[in-house]
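Input record, target 12 of the design panel.
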């Protein structure tokens, strides 16, 4: 029963440690973009968005905003980083003529204009970003992140390659890779890395409009600028409304949302661990009480109080070690089978195992301290009286 309780405690601590270490691992990974001094402006048309945006409207907004001294760069995207919006699709290798090879690759995607890379500070690992060179291209130009490039073209250079959307249309949309960025995790520091692709915004030719404006501002720009920014936007479309938000605020909100599950799991795990600790302490107390005659006999035969104390603690550590070995034998199946994918990779498993072992040994020591001390304080006469 003691070993079972310890095994349960070990599993609880392991789950919490693995959860936390995976979050820490993700937090340390590169995002692939720079959100410092970047503001997002969400355009809300007065016609409920039924009318498509024309190229002249994008040009007008870009000119007006670029004229502000606080604005360094302007870009248009379908949705900003640190938002809950998502666009996904399945892609497969092949050209517009329909030839294909390999399976499908699932990816997230976003549409951006030629200025989006400058605003977000995207670094190209290969190729280039969108430009006027892509005007009139037969296939839509795209920029992939490295993960997507390796998934779609394993062992090959992605730039210059073509692929198509894996849908049921008679003439699927064709894409041509013009560049590759290292990383891109638009959902923030705690989001798992995923396949991602940028498609070029071409007003009137895309499936949707890019109704989010990203502004790279000069360092030190305060929120007082928001009022003048809104006034300048009203010069272009007075009947529209604009939601202006610094990406730093969106990042804080996203981190808060993403850490809520960890906090909830932590509270539940702490409560369960406390219950296990109480049960373990009670079982050790009872076990020590039942062994008073044995302890008295050992004392009568010359065992010192410290030897009795070490015996109680050592026995508890042996029980803990047995439970830990059994727990590890069961838990190691998770990364071996890949049931949790990259969320429980080997570094996370190893770190969680070490933390769990340390926590269980500490818990065992704390639970054994008082029963062991009580046993060591028994005099031989008092202990043998039970006989």
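The sequence produced for target 12 reads:
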């Amino acid at each position: 029963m003691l070993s079972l309780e310890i095994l349960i405690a070990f599993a609880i601590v392991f789950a919490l440690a693995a959860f936390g270490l995976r979050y820490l691992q993700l937090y340390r990974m590169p995002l692939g973009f720079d959100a410092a001094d970047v503001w997002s402006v969400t355009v809300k048309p007065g016609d409920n968005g039924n009318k498509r945006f024309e190229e002249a409207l994008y040009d007008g907004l870009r000119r007006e905003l670029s004229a502000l001294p606080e604005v360094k760069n302007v870009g248009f995207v379908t949705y900003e980083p640190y938002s809950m919006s998502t666009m996904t699709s399945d892609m497969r290798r092949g050209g517009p003529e329909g030839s294909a090879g390999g399976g499908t690759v699932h990816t997230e995607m976003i549409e951006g204009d030629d200025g989006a890379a400058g605003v977000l500070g995207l670094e190209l690992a290969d190729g280039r970003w969108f430009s006027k060179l892509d005007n009139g291209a037969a296939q839509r130009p795209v920029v992939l992140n490295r993960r997507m490039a390796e998934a779609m073209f394993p062992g090959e250079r992605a730039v210059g390659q073509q692929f198509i959307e894996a849908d049921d249309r008679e003439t699927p949309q064709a894409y041509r890779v013009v560049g590759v960025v290292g990383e891109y995790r638009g959902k923030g520091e705690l989001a798992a890395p995923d396949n991602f692709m940028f498609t070029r915004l071409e007003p009137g030719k895309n499936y949707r409009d890019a109704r989010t404006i990203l502004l790279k501002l000069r360092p030190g720009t305060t929120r007082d600028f928001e009022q003048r920014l809104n006034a300048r936007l009203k010069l272009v479309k007075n009947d529209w409304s604009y939601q202006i938000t610094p990406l730093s605020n969106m990042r804080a909100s996203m981190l808060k949302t993403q850490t809520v599950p960890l906090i909830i799991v932590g509270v539940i795990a702490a409560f369960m661990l406390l219950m296990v600790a109480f049960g373990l302490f009670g079982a050790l107390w009872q076990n020590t009480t039942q062994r008073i005659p044995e302890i008295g006999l050992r004392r009568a035969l010359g065992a010192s109080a410290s030897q009795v104390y070490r015996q109680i603690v050592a026995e508890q550590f042996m029980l803990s070690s047995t439970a830990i070995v059994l727990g590890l034998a069961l838990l190691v199946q998770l990364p071996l089978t890949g049931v949790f994918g990259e969320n429980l990779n080997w570094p996370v498993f190893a770190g969680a195992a070490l933390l769990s072992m340390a926590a269980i040994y500490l818990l065992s020591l704390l639970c054994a301290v008082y029963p062991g001390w009580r046993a060591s304080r028994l005099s031989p006469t008092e202990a043998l009286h039970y006989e």
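The mean pLDDT is 86.
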